[in-house]
């Protein structure tokens, strides 16, 4: 898979995350690892920072359910609008976590 194909695969996967559900950067990387040969949460984060505006960027969080401070307020507003389970200022990863192939 070329770098451009990987970017497209990440964005396609993120676009499939249902409203009110999330994946961590690492879970996105893991879900694509076998077919892409890549398994880097940091690379997924970089792709989301550069290209994520076209998809549900707020549905990809760090492993603890948080967002970087500069976008946390906007992400929280989107989580609340979608009914995403929260624990204080973070997503409740146990309740909101999603995996490809899983129903809503």
From TrEMBL:
Keywords tagged on the record: DNA damage
Signal peptide (residue range): none
CDD domains, per the entry: ATase
Database matches in PANTHER family: 6-O-METHYLGUANINE DNA METHYLTRANSFERASE, ALKYLTRANSFERASE-LIKE PROTEIN 1
Organism annotation: Micromonospora fiedleri
Annotated protein name in UniProt: MGMT family protein
Location of the Methylated-DNA-[protein]-cysteine S-methyltransferase DNA binding domain: 8-80
InterPro entries named in the record: ATL_DNA_repair, MethylDNA_cys_MeTrfase_DNA-bd, MethylDNA_cys_MeTrfase_DNAb, WH-like_DNA-bd_sf
